[in-house]
Amino acid sequence: MSESYMDVVRELAGAQKGAARGAPAYSRFVNRRLGRFAAAWALRRGLTPNAVTGLSALATFAGIGMLAFVAPAWWEGIAVAALLVLGYALDSADGQVARATRSGSAQGEWLDHMVDATKIATLPLAVGVGIYRFTDLDDRWLLIPLVNAVVGSVLFFGMILTEQLRRAHGVTSSAVPGAAGGLRSLLVLPTDYGILCLTFVFWGSPTTFLTIFGFLTAATAGYLVLAARKWFVEIGAFARG
């Protein structure tokens, strides 16, 4: 590719996919930009969208593996957070590469969702394994990562299933090109996967980390209840329509 790196970044910015209304602030304003820089790097090296998805999985699962096999320490928390943030940015980049090269496919979408589903389940489970193996905290703390694994998996499945049902019934996506941020983006920030990634900087203090992790889990559970009700009503309208 003859274009300069920054030229590619600017082209990607101009072709950015619309953001869903009220998408969490980190994912919307930080991760998409990081993904853009990662996508420009991938495009200049001729990487396919699936290759970028593979790099995303490699970074993400390296961080998850550290949680389960290395005793909690401050340096480790920073390393895990960096790997998860990198993995999340690459998760945004694969779609941008697909759109830039017009090489999106059902296989690529399937692979992307499979990686997402796996990390959502294994990340909190790795937290639980690490806490159980390397700390003497009361076992009741382990309920937090277990609940997080359930809540995260159900929320992800609900989002994907609802979107598929919308497509099946010809409902237009809620993504809005160039949509400005709003209060909702900030209110749902505790549910943002990117914020979860950053909390691992506290991994060196397991009690502090689990307290923050527990708050994010409770907030996400509350969001899931509200979202599930909304989705249920929306899907009921499909049948009536």
SS-based structural class? mainly alpha
Largest sheet geometry: 2 strands, antiparallel
CATH evolutionary superfamily: CDP-alcohol phosphotransferase transmembrane (TM) domain
Total helical segments:
9
> What proportion strand?
under 5%
Distance between the termini: 49 Å
Question: Care to describe what's here?
Answer:
The protein has one domain: CDP-alcohol phosphotransferase transmembrane (TM) domain (Four Helix Bundle (Hemerythrin (Met), subunit A), Up-down Bundle), CATH 1.20.120. The mean pLDDT is 91. The chain is globular and about 55 Å long. The protein has nine helices and two strands; from the N terminus they run αβαααααβααα. The protein has a two-stranded antiparallel sheet with strand order 1-2. The longest helix has 35 residues, at 206-240. α1 (5-14) packs across α2 and α6 runs parallel beside α9. It has 241 residues and is mostly helical.
Give me the secondary-structure topology.
Blueprint: H1 5-14, E1 19-20, H2 25-44, H3 49-69, H4 74-101, H5 106-134, H6 143-168, E2 175-176, H7 183-187, H8 193-198, H9 206-240
Antiparallel strand pairs: 1-2
Helix pairs in contact: 1-2, 2-4, 3-4, 3-5, 5-6, 6-9
TL;DR of this structure?
The chain has helices at residues 5-14, 25-44, 49-69, 74-101, 106-134, 143-168, 183-187, 193-198, 206-240; strands at residues 19-20, 175-176.
Labels describing this entry:
241 residues, mainly alpha, Four Helix Bundle (Hemerythrin (Met), subunit A), two-stranded antiparallel sheet, 9 helices, 75% helix
